[in-house]
Task: structure prediction
Amino acid sequence: MAETLDFLLPHPEGDTQMLALKQLTKAFGGVRAIDNLTVSFEPHRVHGLIGPNGAGKTTLFNLTSGTLRPDNGEISFNGVPITWWNPWNIARLGIGRTFQTIRIFPKMTVLQNMMVPYGTDPSRSVELLEFVGLREFRDAPARELSYGQQKLLEFARALVTSPRFVLLDEPTAGVNPILVEKIMGHIRNLTRDGKTFIVIEHDMKVIMNLCERIVVLHNGEKIADGPPEMIKTNQQVIDAYFGD
Amino acid sequence: MARGAKLLTLGVLFAGLVGLPFFLTGYKLRFVTWLLMWVGLASTWNLFSGYTGYINFGPVAFFGVGAYVTAVLMVKAGVSFFPALLAAGVLAGIAALLLGVPTLRIRGAYFAIATLAFSEATRSLTLNLSGLTEGGKGLMLPIYNNAYFFYFVILGLTVAVVATVAFIQRTRFGITLVSIREDEVASQVLGVNTFLNKMAAFGLSGVFLALYGGIYAYWQTFIEPGEVFNVLYSVQMLVMTFLGGSGTLLGPIVGAVVLGAMTEYLWATFTYVYLIFVGVLIVATVLFLPDGVWGYCVQTQSRRRRRAQPAPVLE
Result:
C-alpha cells in the first residue's frame, strides 16, 4: 500500500501538528466530558494521554474517531477538517483505534476479525496474529479467547491496515508483563517507521517508558503537556490524582 | 465434507427437486411448491436480518408490493407475467432503498417497530388506492392453470436466493454484514461503510421478497390486501429463520422445512389446537436452541473438530 509521506514535509504554517483539536467541547447532560479543549499531536511520536477516571480521555478518542459528535469546536487531521466526517471515512484517512472495553466480533473467528478492516491484507493479518501469539487460535471464535488475548486481537486488528495514526485505549490492561514489553517494543518500532500513537494508559511505568510527550486531562481540560520528566514533578498533575 | 461429496449431494438434491413434481399431483405438489416458496422467503429474510442483526418485522410489505405491482400491471395494463414481475422487483428494490435511508439509522426494537409500521402502512395504502388496486375487493388475475410452471418458477427463484446467500457468505460483503451484527461501531472505526452495506442487503432482500409476491399473486390468481400484507407472513419468515438458525446458509432452509411440514401435519391432525403446538415449539427453540437447530449442529461440529486438534496451550 502506498503510504503518503506528505506529513513528513514541514507544515505551511511552520508547525508540525498532525491531529489538532481546537476549542473542543462535548457535554453529557450537565457534565462537560471535554471542556473547550485545544491540543495538538505531532507526527511520528508516541503521545501519552493520562488523567484520573472521568477526565475525558476516552471521549477525546470517540470524538476523534467520529463515533461521537462534539457540541462545539473543530478537529483536523493533517489540515483536513474531519469534525463531521463519518467514522469509516476517518478510518480510511488513516486513523485507527482500539477500545477500552474490548470490541471484537465475538462470534467471528480470530482470522475473520482480521478480515473486517477496510483494505485489510491477508498476509499481514497472519503476520500480526503470529506477533501477538494468536496464530494457532485463528479458527477459534474470538469470544473463546481469554481477556488478554482479546485485547491483543483488537490491537492486531487496529494495525492490519497500517494506519498512520493510532489511538490505543489501555492496550496493556490485562495483558501479561512479557507481552506488554513486546507490545511496547512494537509501538516503538512502528513509530520509528513513521507512525504516530496516542496511548491512554493507567500504568505509569508503561506511560513513562513509552511516551515522548504526555498530555494530562482533568475534568475535560488540559492541565499539563510535556515530556515525562516534567509531568512527573508537575504539582497540578499530582493534585489532580491525589486531591489537594 | 469433501468438495466432491458436497457437489454430488447438491447434484442429487437438484435432480431430485427437478424430478419431484412428476411424481406428485394436486394437493401434494401444491404443498411442495408452497414449502419451496417459504424456504426462499426465510432465506431472503435471513440474507438481511440474519446476517446484519437488524430485525425486519415487515418483510411482508415487499412481498405485498410485489404481488400488487405484478397484479395491477397484468390486470390494468395488460402486461404479461414476466415483465410485470421484473417491474415489481425493481419497484420493491427502490422502495426498500427509500425506506432504508431513514430506518437503517435506528437499531434494535426501534428498527423492528419502524418496519412493522411500514408494512401496515403499505397495506392501508393498497386498501385505499382503490382506483388502482380495487381496495378490499381484491384483484383477480388472469388464470394460468399449470402447477408445473409455478413449481419450476419458484424452484428457480429459491435456488437463486440460496445461491446468492452462499455467494455473499464467501465474499467480503458477507463478513462486513456479520461485523455489523456483532459490533457496528467497531466495524465503522475499521473503515467499513456500514450504511452502504446495510442498504445493499436490505435492497436485495426487498427485490427477492417482491419476486415471491409477484409469483404468488399469479399462482393464487386472486389477491387482497389482508392476505398479501398479512403480518403473520412476516412472523413466519422470522420464526422459520430462528428455528433453523439465523445467520447461517442452511438454517432458514431447515427451519422452513421443519416448521412448514410440522404446521401442515399438526393442522391436518389437530385443526383447532395446532397453534398451541407451534407455540410450544417456538418457546422450546428459544430456550434450548438459541442458535437454532442448524446453528446448534454447526457449533457442536466445529467445537469437536477443534478439540480433535492438539490443544494449544492457553496463557
